[in-house]
């Protein structure tokens, strides 16, 4: 069984991505981050999803981005609520964490090289997303090129690293359907940016999630405020 590093936040997209990686025959090596995020609650979901999918290992990396701030998720900035749907993806929102996917993928690359994995899965989509620039194909292609230039394995030709993005061209509703087809238990996942005991239903992430389940014709199993 080939190994794959899967970035697992505990959210809808990363959980569906992990389920897809498993369905393709990969042994899952899940990687999550405690980076000082407001919604630290998501790590409980990441642990539950990793266990439910039979991950071979689940590594949680701890570092603190609150020192840099610059995001409603890592700074004393209010999370926007009740934004109109057409505003959510029109500009880069204040919930964007500077360079987050670059940082996450860099850790994933180091982990992959250490365990002898050449496939790194990340649940980005450039169809339904919150306007984040590090969810686009251009970024993924550039990082993959860098990964094969900046590693011992890449330079020596031991293997070629691939950044796998199975949701890239899927809508969030299609991601929901794909996960359900694979038996994913979405009640284990978490999307809310506020990180309270129950999801708010009002932040961008909750609104995108609720719209996805509605479009997919399915009920979201989470209990919203």
Summarize the structure in words.
By secondary structure, the protein is an alpha/beta fold. The protein has one domain: 3-Layer(aba) Sandwich (Rossmann fold). The protein is about 35% helix and about 10% strand. The protein contains eight helices and five strands; from the N terminus they run βαβαβααβααβαα. The protein has helices at about 10-25, 40-50, 85-90, 100-115, 135-150, 150-155, 170-180, 205-215; strands at about 5, 25-35, 55-60, 120, 160-165. It has a five-stranded parallel beta sheet, sandwiched between helices. Helix 1 (about 10-25) links the parallel strand 1 (about 5) and strand 2. The longest helix is centred in the middle third of the chain and has 16 residues, at about 100-115. The chain is globular.
Could you give a short description of this structure?
This protein has 225 residues and is α/β, with parallel strands linked by helices. Helix content is 37%, strand content 11%. The chain has one domain: HUPs (Rossmann fold, 3-Layer(aba) Sandwich), CATH 3.40.50.
Q: SSE layout and pairings?
A:
Elements: E1 3-7, H1 12-23, E2 27-34, H2 42-52, E3 57-62, H3 85-88, H4 100-115, E4 119-121, H5 137-149, H6 152-156, E5 162-164, H7 172-181, H8 204-216
Parallel strand pairs: 1-2, 1-4, 2-3, 4-5
Helix pairs in contact: 1-7, 7-8
Count of strand segments: 5
Largest sheet: 5 strands, parallel
Q: Which residues sit in consecutive blocks of at least 5 with pLDDT less than 50?
A: none
Radius of gyration, CA atoms, in whole angstroms: 17 Å
Molecular shape: globular
Q: What is the typical, i.e. mean, pLDDT?
A: 95
Q: Please indicate the count of domains.
A: 1
Strand order of the largest sheet: 3-2-1-4-5
């Amino acid at each position: 069984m080939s190994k794959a590093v899967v970035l697992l936040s505990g959210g809808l997209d990363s959980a569906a991505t992990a389920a897809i990686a498993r369905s393709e025959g990969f042994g899952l090596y899940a990687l999550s981050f405690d980076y000082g995020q407001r919604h630290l609650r998501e790590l409980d979901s990441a642990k539950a999803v990793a266990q439910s999918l039979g991950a071979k290992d689940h590594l949680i990396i701890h570092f603190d981005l609150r020192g840099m701030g610059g995001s409603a998720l890592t700074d004393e900035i209010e999370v926007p609520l009740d934004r109109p749907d057409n505003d959510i993806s029109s500009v880069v929102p204040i919930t964007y964490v500077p360079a987050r996917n670059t940082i996450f993928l860099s850790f994933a690359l180091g982990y992959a090289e250490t365990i002898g994995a050449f496939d790194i899965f990340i649940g980005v989509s450039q169809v339904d997303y919150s306007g984040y620039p590090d969810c686009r194909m251009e970024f993924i292609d550039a990082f993959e090129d860098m990964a094969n230039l900046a590693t011992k394995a890449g330079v020596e030709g031991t293997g070629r690293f691939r950044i796998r993005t199975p949701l890239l061209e899927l809508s969030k509703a299609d991601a929901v359907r794909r996960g359900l087809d694979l038996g994913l238990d979405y009640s284990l996942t978490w999307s809310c940016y506020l990180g309270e005991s129950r999801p708010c239903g009002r932040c961008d992430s909750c609104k995108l999630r609720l719209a996805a389940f509605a479009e997919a014709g399915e009920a979201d199993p989470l209990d919203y405020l």
